[in-house]
Amino acid sequence: MQKEIVVSGIRSTGYLHLGNYFGAIKNYIKMQNEYNCYFFVADYHSLTTHPDPKALKPNVYRVIAENIACGLDPEKVALYVQSDLPEIPELYLLLNTMAYLGELEKTASFKEKARANPDNVNAGLLTYPTLMTADIIIHKGTLVPVGKDQEQHLEMARTFANRFNHRYGDYFPEPKAFGFAGELVKVPSLDGTGKMSKSENENATIYLNDSDEDIIRKVKKAKTDSGPTAPNMPKPDYIQNIFQLLNLVSAPDVVAKFDEDYNNCVIRYGDLKKQLGEDMAKFVAPIRAKAIDLQNDEATLQRMMKQGAEKARASASVTIQEVRKLIGVHYY
Ligand code: ADP
Ligand code: TRP
Predict the structure, then answer these.
(1) Which residues have C-beta atoms less than 6 Å from ligand 2?
(2) Is 110 helix (H, G, I), strand (E, B) or coil?
(3) Ligand 1 pocket member 198 (CB < 6 A)
(4) Does ligand 1 have an atom closer than 6 angstroms to the CB of 196?
(5) Using CA positions, which residue lies closest to atom 13 of ligand 2?
(6) Candidates 59, 128, 149, 198: which one to mutate for ligand 1, based on the most atoms within 8 Å of Cβ?
(7) How far apart, in whole angstroms, are the C-alpha atoms of residue 224 and residue 278?
(8) Of 113, 140, 218, 273, which one is the catalytic site residue?
C-alpha cells in the first residue's frame, strides 16, 4: 500500500521554541517512520514579514539544524528549503487565479499582520494561504502536522484544492491539519496571553537555544497569584497555562502532585515554577547542544539541504507537469 503523504513547513523568522516543538516538530518525528514525509523551511513565507537579506541565511540554516537536533532524520524524510523548489512559486501563481480577494482578506492571520504592521500590507501577506496551499499540494500531501494556529490556513488549502478539482478535474487529494489523538496543540506563552511565538514576546517564550539560566529566569517571571482560596477551585487561565506547560515536560507523577496541592490549597507557586524551569531546561539542553554542533558544520547542513531538495523536486516536478496539462498551459 502507498504511504500517506505528509507535508509541513516552518518559517525562517527566528529561533525555534517549545511551541514549534510541541505543536509541529514532535509530530514530524513521530510520523517520519510511517509516512512519506516532506518537511521544509518556508523562507518565501518569511519574506512577507521579515525581509532582511542578512538574516535569511542564518535563519534558514538554524531551522534545518534545530529540526535535526530535535530528532528529524534527513535520510528518512525530504528536509529542504522552499525556495529550492521553483515548482512551488509556479503552482502558487496558478492558484492565485483561483483565490478570491474577499476570502483572502478575511483570513485571521492576514488581518492580524496587517493590523500589527500597517506600513507593510503586501500582496505576499494577502496570498500567504495560496503559497501555503502550493507547498502542500505540490506533493499531493494529505496530512499536515501543524499547531492550532494553522487551522484556518488548512481550511483554505482544502478550499483551493477543491476549487482546482472542480475547475480542472479531480486531481488533488484534500489536505488536513494533523495532530496526534486528533488534537492540534497550542503552547501558551508564559505571560498568560497568547501563544509562544518566534518573533513576539521573547520573555514569555522558551527558545530551543535558551541557556538553562534564561529558561529558569523566564519561568520564574510567569504570572501567578496568591494561590487558590478554596479547595478544588477552577484554575485561572494563567495557572492553567503553567500546568499545561508542566504536562509537556514533566513526569506525570510530578504534574499529579502539583495538581493535588492546588486542589488542597497548599500549592507553592515558587516550587511549581522551579520544577517547571528545571524540567524545561533539562528538555532543551541536549537539543541546544546538538543544534549548535550542527550549525558549526555548514558543509554537512548544505549537503543535507541539497539532498532534501532533490528528493522534493522529484515529486514536485511530476505534479507541476500534470497541473500545466490540466490547466491547458501545454503547447508542444
Ligand atoms: P512562529 O509562529 O513561532 O513564527 P511558525 O509560524 O513558523 O512559527 O510555525 C511553525 C509551526 O509551529 C506551525 O506548525 C505552527 O502551528 C507551530 N507553532 C508555532 N507556535 C506554536 C505554539 N505556540 N503552539 C503550538 N504550535 C505552534
Ligand atoms: N504558515 C505556517 C506557519 O506560519 C508555515 C507553513 C508554510 C506551512 N507553508 C506550510 C505549514 C505548509 C504547513 C504546511 O506556521
Answers:
(1) 7-9, 11, 42, 45, 132, 135-136, 144, 146, 150, 153
(2) helix
(3) yes
(4) yes
(5) 8
(6) 149
(7) 18
(8) 113
- The whole-angstrom separation of Cα 242 and Cα 190 is 7
Domain 209-291: CATH architecture, name and number where available: Orthogonal Bundle (1.10)
Q: What is the pLDDT of residues 270-294, one digit of tens each?
A: 999 999 999 999 999 999 999 999 9
Architecture of domain 5-186+297-327: 3-Layer(aba) Sandwich (3.40)
**Of 22, 30, 25, which is closest to residue 10 (Cα–Cα)?**
25
Q: SS3 of 71, please?
A: coil
The C-alpha R_g of the chain, in whole angstroms, comes to 21
Give Cβ neighbours of residue 44 (< 8 Å, ≥ 6 apart).
Answer: 82, 83, 88, 89, 124, 131
Chain center to CA of 253? 29
Q: How far is the CA of 189 from the centre of ligand 1 (A)?
A: 12
57 assigned to active site: no
- pTM for the full predicted model: 0.97
Does residue 107 contact residue 128 with C-beta atoms inside 8 Å? Answer: yes
Q: Which residue has the cell 497541473?
A: 323
Residue ranges covered by each domain of the chain: 5-186+297-327, 209-291
Per-residue pLDDT tens over the stretch 29-52: 999 999 999 999 999 999 999 999
